[in-house]
Amino acid sequence: MTDLKEGVCLNGFWYNHEHCCWNSPQTTFQDRDKCPEWRTWAQLLTSREEEGALGYILNYFLYVLWALLFSFLAVLLVRGFAPYACGSGIPEIKTILSGFIIRGYLGKWTLLIKTVTLVLAVSSGLSLGKEGPLVHVACCCGNILCHLFTKYRKNEAKRREVLSAAAAAGVSVAFGAPIGGVLFSLEEVSYYFPLKTLWRSFFAALVAAFTLRSINPFGNSRLVLFYVEFHSPWHLLELVPFILLGIFGGLWGAFFIRSNIAWCRRRKTTKLGRYPMLEVLVVTALTALLAFPNKYTRMSTSELISELFNDCSLLDSSQLCDYRSAPNSTQGDDLPDRAAGPGLHVATWQLMLALLLKFFITIFTFGMKVPSGLFIPSMAVGAIAGRLLGVGMEQLAYHHHDWLIFKGWCSPGADCITPGLYAMVGAAACLGGVTRMTVSLVVIMFELTGGLEYIVPLMAAAMTSKWVADAIGREGIYDAHIRLNGYPFLEAKEEFTHKTLAMDVMRPRRSDPALTVLTQDSMTVEDVEAIINETTYSGYPVVVSRESQRLVGFVLRRDLVISIESARKKQEGIVSSSVIYFTDHCPPLPPCSPSMLKLRNLLDLSPFTVTDQTPMEIVVDIFRKLGLRQCLVTHNGKLLGIITKKDVLKHIAQMANQDPDSILFN
Amino acid sequence: MTDLKEGVCLNGFWYNHEHCCWNSPQTTFQDRDKCPEWRTWAQLLTSREEEGALGYILNYFLYVLWALLFSFLAVLLVRGFAPYACGSGIPEIKTILSGFIIRGYLGKWTLLIKTVTLVLAVSSGLSLGKEGPLVHVACCCGNILCHLFTKYRKNEAKRREVLSAAAAAGVSVAFGAPIGGVLFSLEEVSYYFPLKTLWRSFFAALVAAFTLRSINPFGNSRLVLFYVEFHSPWHLLELVPFILLGIFGGLWGAFFIRSNIAWCRRRKTTKLGRYPMLEVLVVTALTALLAFPNKYTRMSTSELISELFNDCSLLDSSQLCDYRSAPNSTQGDDLPDRAAGPGLHVATWQLMLALLLKFFITIFTFGMKVPSGLFIPSMAVGAIAGRLLGVGMEQLAYHHHDWLIFKGWCSPGADCITPGLYAMVGAAACLGGVTRMTVSLVVIMFELTGGLEYIVPLMAAAMTSKWVADAIGREGIYDAHIRLNGYPFLEAKEEFTHKTLAMDVMRPRRSDPALTVLTQDSMTVEDVEAIINETTYSGYPVVVSRESQRLVGFVLRRDLVISIESARKKQEGIVSSSVIYFTDHCPPLPPCSPSMLKLRNLLDLSPFTVTDQTPMEIVVDIFRKLGLRQCLVTHNGKLLGIITKKDVLKHIAQMANQDPDSILFN
């Protein structure tokens, strides 16, 4: 569908340009993208082989039109059927895995619509990728499958394990990177990742990769998206440009996150948010208008990355490999560094313009109401920057091979600098700057490219990029979007180091009235109903007596309301003055008194408690590791207060000098 | 030093055979292991070029003698200076990371002696590897470095993070596999692995890999130990032999663990354990005697693995590549499958004998009083089995290429089966069977060999192997050794699914006398001393009063003893009848009474509590995730009992029908 924007294959409209010409008998290796079966729209409509200026304008116009059609369909479907299908979905999946529930987010409608609109959005030529949304799609599949098995339908924790594995399978399919997928799920998506989940995710990712290989989508028995093979090892001194790429990636990542968040906040708070369709159409039109004239932006982003990663071989006819041939040209694959030819000069300019376009348009694209991933655009920005630096280094080494720094490893006639490797490192750096992944990033990159020899350059770039980006802003793009949307997400990566105690955070505060509690054997139905009506808490602690304040258990508001209501209707003798018993054994009833209501079975007998002197550092740790929603606070065995997840989040925000009221809690 | 067993280099005794001949001007590529500078001991001692039967016997004798000398030195040093330097150290490091303290295990003596004896043990030709011990060595370094920084010296949790990172660096150096190292630390070694540790381990592993690359130990700018490049992709049908290898690996792993544990238990319980030196010497002599006549056992195990992984090229002169040349021999690297030559027949027999030797001798070697790792021997067993199967498959395909299963992908003249790949898969399967690693195993294997294309075969073999081995015995070798040694290790991978409650596990039992507690303001120094003398508990809960049993805090026995002792000596007026106050504010003293002892600062004011109704499933989870040593049990706000880690471990053992008394606790 991406190629449909440019033309059509006469053998069948579902073939893309490359595939169309594969089947053509008249194609040579050199001209493998030119064949009579593939017609641009201008050729087809004017029935002429040659395209003039008019043909160009016609192609241009139809390119934009197709792009608008695709994106319009995408946004229409998303708006109409599944509003949750937009965006990458990774921030929400992180939140869901941390224990928050967003109803319908992983439902069948989201799955269906996201799958269809993702195809449309990617082929519309917008600056977005399919990888993040594929994680969401995989999690939808996982969630829907969970409903088939009682074990998983009933148990929230088990379901989250399935979702972690699904995320791994999603990345495994998106990149053909099974191990990278498992690590991505571990590092970026999952909140709590027990070891048995690691093993199961691994299995899911294996099956996903295996299925992918059986389908063989790239026609080369390879799993990976951008297979590259470089011929020369890298030199230690090259670490300097690699680290420069890391710095660029970090700066771009931080800049991107800031600008994107500012733009998204603007969308949330101003009138802009009311016209999502118009926004999508305007951005699509702008992207298409600016992209068409430049060869490198007109092609799909994954093709672009693939070309940038590529090492030039002798037979390569692409513009990027247009070098002046060396005087003593060698046979075989090893090519010495050569001077740039005119084609490469043009390509350099075009790449610079492409960099500029991708740099800015992605900021406005990510967050629109269409499915949109960030991996491919980030990698494209990095790959362009890397390739440019690589070509620059190569020319520098060629023309100044007598410089001290090139002595010894870059003599004339040697193949010392591989621009494709720079593109790969740059891509890793930019992706790292945006997402702040480390280990999973490196694994994905080398699974993606097969470049195992280049772990150290990739690691150096990924780490520099993370450091630089972290120095400017602590949060990765996903965490930033979580905070922007106000999801109650307790970040597991950052340490809480302040010296506050549980008593400083718990409710009620020192000046407030005492905690609302129920007693185990002295309150009537009326009393309890009054408390339920007066307060909005979602649960109440039950104590032995108001005087002793000794904790018995915890009861949920919802359970209480339902039980009292049904008892009043169905159980005989339950009136407002009936006493509610939470105890195990009930005393014998005095004669003529209303019958009692036994609610012991509602009680959570093992509520979590900490003492008021517990440092908040430990409380935060407990909330994170045990995934609690609330925790009771005691002093010398007496119940004193309660800390909810919201209180913890607000306290962390307060300590970090952020606005505590930005934390929502549905 | 390994080659010193066979001969000596005249240019300098520190050169090994290969290195010695590199520098020789008279060597051709074909005869690169024959050069006049390298002399076997027989050649040197008899001053003759030709070796007769006598020379062979002389070489044999000296080979055994050198082996005995090396292993004698190793065991002497271990016995004399650092008893903790023996074994692989991974079970102990796992235990240490789970919160148990073994004093001196990571000290400077262990570091020094283990480094030296590891060299000796490996060069003695015993069936052991250097990888596991290198993890121990790295952890020693990490621990010693921790002592330099107050932040890490004082904080146990921080130190454990450093040790996790050190383990990653250790594997990174051992295999040249930085990412595999991080995953090994995560999957196998570390108990609790927060995400920030992932990132730091990654950094440590990067620096380790980078340093290794700068030193360039293999002289080929490659990080990896066994670099291989295969020329043909694998076929789907080959998954059947790969899964067979997985089954073999699983069976071998389970068999090895059972036999090794049985032998180690025998060593612990019988007289055998009293003669560790004799044991080492006997095993060394036996290994050397059986190893010398066979070329494949005489060479070092890593050389053997390297040769087994190797894909045969045209110029390869090794016995394993002795095929009959094909009638229409092609130029280049792609070699069609050919019939086996006489050399390969001999090699097959020798490999079978080598398999038999390694199969059995490793059982007796692992666990002796010398540093010994398991990675290399396990991989060797698997690689031999895999290579044999690979050669078998190749010959089958060559001679029966008309069979249905070979149709289409294995036509005559095609290079369809790569025996080296089978060796690699076999090595992964056996290593997986012994250690039960999954993700880290696959990552290490492909970092080790550069075989990124072969993730699916490796994963299939690793998983089959784990399933088969798990079906026979649940524990990997490290867990089995932890249990053999009775370390208090709470396994994080297995779920606790029984329906018991905290009250069933806590002490005191229902029939026992009540829990020993201290009161906060009514006990005298004498009372407390009496309690300390009567009981052996390592800590006591402090309550408001014996009647209320309301919990105030927890005090450690050690702190109490020290404080009372020093107060009696240094503080005026402290006598046996002085009252100990754990309260915040002390009441005014009545006149003429002995002065009081304030010990509030000893009190842990935030002891962990659960209610008696808490399911043990949750209690086990809390112990694991929070790394607790004990936890107090309350009922309706009253202190009822205590659960220690030992109680939890005993309960788990009891539920699994194991002997609960096998759990030690120092």
Automatic annotation (TrEMBL), chains A, B:
Gene Ontology cellular component list: early endosome; endosome membrane; Golgi apparatus; plasma membrane; synaptic vesicle
Alphabetical list of Gene3D superfamilies matching this protein: 3.90.1280.20, Clc chloride channel (1.10.3080.10)
Residue ranges of the TM segments: 57-78, 111-128, 134-150, 162-186, 236-255, 275-292, 346-368, 374-393
Subcellular location: Endosome membrane; Membrane
Pfam family, one: Voltage_CLC
Highest taxon of the lineage: Eukaryota
GO MF annotations, alphabetized: antiporter activity; ATP binding; voltage-gated chloride channel activity
Family classification: Belongs to the chloride channel (TC 2.A.49) family.
Record's protein name: Chloride channel protein
Originating species: Pantherophis guttatus
Gene this chain is encoded by: CLCN5
